[in-house]
Design goal:
- The protein has 17 helices and 24 strands.
- The radius of gyration is 25 Å and the shape is globular.
- The strands form 4 sheets. A 6-stranded mixed beta sheet has the order 3-2-1-10-11-12, covered by helices on one side. The protein has a 6-stranded mixed beta sheet with strand order 4-5-6-7-9-8, with helices on one face.
- It has 3 domains: 272 residues, Purple Acid Phosphatase, chain A, domain 2 (4-Layer Sandwich), CATH 3.60.21; 249 residues, Metallo-dependent phosphatases (Purple Acid Phosphatase, chain A, domain 2); 38 residues, no CATH class.
Length: 589
């Protein structure tokens, strides 16, 4: 058995933990990617997208290796396949696709057909399924055009493609739609157009289980009762963390998996197969506004808690920050509303509560987060840490437009201290009433909250950390939280010997997970038995999202919960399952 196959088997086994009923084999397993963006253009001609010349082919090679090491019934590639739509781009794309062992089907995107339709048809047209349907092991796959989806003419074309193809979906074991159009379900508040009515009639009458789209940044939505799941791009910078999607179709359910490979667990969404099971309830009908959360509570976890990160409120006094932080209050209010509805046992915030550490920002933070109902445990980040006085004392400080606010921050700290303050977390302490590092214990779980400063931990705190790990070595679960990650793979991490020491301690004491923020993106990695989770932010970045954790005796389920401008617009979440390293099965006790 080669190394790649071993890796695939490992992460598939880990992913199985997320499903209680995995005793049967899927009736169909489909691999999929989108937007590989293969190009022959040199980096110099790609301008600000020059990285595509390197990352796109590397990522596609990795994807193909994963596909070939997995037993799938088909491989679907949603466009754009090429970056420029040129003949040479399509020829190079073909050299990659010819390496895939599974039957491969292509759905071209805008870039593929706007400039190079003839070239696409000549080179890759034999694999195209645009406007067609396939039956794979009794599962009906319906493909519609990816172009002109927002125009009336384009939507009419899509409707005709759906009518023709879905007429063949009788007695299908499941029905999946690739492409489709952004048409909202009919509602009582607005008049229903003929196109809208017909589109959703086809969806409901033919029991379409999900719609799959091609976008750069992965998303999961619920329109009415229809899950809409974006296939990750193998060529775009945000998404190579998930170079492959796998759709597993069962009789009553469908598992939508994002695959990282390299021995890492899957990120999974489980949805009903409406051919044999009831559809998901709409978000507005779910008591928590999140149908997946309701499903998880039925499993009766020992503890449920939430991790927020990087609320990073900005006071609007520095022009270059104003547009970036335009949504900070809105998104944080949404997070508070959603978390209050879910009623977790506790909530943590892993740093960067403010942007410039000013009094106004802290007052905004407290105005919003005092409305959070569960017990709340924040830790400071680098933005909540006062600048070194020495750097501000130098004439012509490199802090530039942050200089004045930094001086005022120290003046406030001095006033609160009744003299010259020496604690760089003085404002955090004052406005949160918390120490910069501390331990919380509940229901067999220990949470050690670290202050990672500006990517560092002082010797006194490190000694305290060791003591806390030793003291709690017999606890069921131990979690460590800090603003900065310690796993170098995430970047922007605690550096040098300090990081190495923490990593060694995590392994020695079988810590379940190290939870961090800072990077304004999310990610998961298992390293030496410890799960490292990077929580997204609530102000700007890759997504606005937070993490929900369900703790069981033998495993932890980490859930990526996205936010999007309005409550209930992103009601579903995907899960990653980590084994609890301290768990011993009854036979080994």
């Amino acid at each position: 058995m080669n190394k790649t196959v071993s890796i695939l088997l490992l992460f598939l086994m880990i992913g199985m933990l997320a499903s209680q009923a995995f005793s049967q084999e899927p009736v169909c397993r489909i691999a999929a990617i989108s937007s590989p963006y293969i190009t022959t253009l040199p980096a110099t001609e790609l301008g600000e997208r020059s990285w595509i010349a390197k990352t796109a082919p590397e990522s596609l090679e990795r994807t193909i290796a994963l596909v070939n090491a997995t037993q799938v019934d088909a491989m679907i590639v949603l466009g754009p396949l090429s970056w420029s739509g040129s003949k040479t781009d399509f020829e190079r794309t073909k050299t990659f696709l010819d390496k895939i062992k599974a039957p491969t089907y292509l759905l071209p995107g805008e870039k593929d057909v706007s400039a190079g339709r003839e070239s696409f048809d000549n080179i890759l047209g034999n694999k195209s399924v645009e406007g067609q349907s396939l039956n794979i092991n009794g599962v009906h796959l319906q493909f519609t055009s990816l172009t002109n989806t927002h125009t009336t003419e384009g939507q009419r074309t899509i409707l005709q493609q759906m009518k023709t193809g879905l007429s063949r979906a009788k007695n299908a074991k499941a029905v999946l739609l690739f492409g489709g159009a952004e048409i909202r379900p009919p509602s009582e508040q607005n008049a229903t157009s003929p196109i809208q009515a017909e589109y959703w009639r086809l969806i409901n009458d033919n029991k379409v289980a999900a719609r799959f789209t091609a976008v750069h940044a992965h998303s999961v939505r619920l329109e009415g009762q229809l899950p809409i799941w974006s296939i990750p791009s193998s060529g775009w910078s945000y998404t190579p963390k998930w170079p492959l999607a796998i759709i597993n179709v069962y009789k009553k359910k469908i598992e939508l998996d994002l695959v990282a490979g390299d021995g890492q667990p899957l990120q999974r969404l489980i949805i009903p197969n409406p051919v044999n099971a009831a559809r998901m309830v709409p978000a507005a009908s779910d008591p928590f506004g999140a149908p997946t959360f309701s499903e998880d509570l039925k499993l009766k976890p020992d503890l449920t808690f939430v991790q927020l990160s990087d609320s990073q409120f900005d006071d609007g006094t520095v022009p270059r920050y104003q547009s970036r932080f335009a949504m900070d209050e809105k998104m944080n209010k949404l997070a508070v509303t959603q978390v209050n509805r879910m009623k977790p046992a506790m909530v943590f915030m892993t740093g960067d509560l403010t942007n410039k550490n000013t009094k106004t920002e802290w007052e905004t933070f407290n105005r919003i987060y005092t409305k959070l109902k569960p017990p709340f445990y924040p830790v400071p980040g680098n933005h909540d840490t006062l600048y070194e006085r020495a750097s501000l004392a130098r004439e012509g400080s490199e802090k530039d437009d942050l200089f004045n606010s930094s001086i005022k921050n120290w003046q406030l700290a001095d006033k609160l201290a009744g003299g010259k303050a020496t604690d760089r977390t003085a404002l955090f302490r004052h406005f949160t009433k918390k120490d910069p590092y501390y331990t919380v214990e509940t229901n067999g779980c220990v949470f050690i909250c670290l202050y990672t400063g500006v990517a560092s931990i002082e010797k006194e705190q490190m000694a305290w950390f060791r003591q806390q790990l030793e003291r709690t070595k017999n606890a069921k679960h131990v979690f460590v939280l800090g603003h900065y990650p310690v796993l170098k793979d995430f970047g922007g991490s605690v550096q040098g010997p300090e990081a190495d020491e923490i990593m060694a301690l995590l392994r020695q004491y079988k810590v379940a997970a190290y939870l961090a923020g800072h990077r304004h993106r999310y990610g998961y990695k298992i390293h030496n038995g410890t799960a490292h989770v990077l929580c997204d932010d609530l102000c700007w970045g890759e997504y606005c999202a937070y993490q929900i954790y369900h703790v069981f005796e033998d495993r932890i389920i980490a859930c990526w919960k996205p936010l999007f401008r309005a409550d209930l617009n992103r009601p579903l979440y995907e899960r990653v399952v980590f084994p609890e390293p301290r768990y011993k099965s009854p036979s080994k006790r």
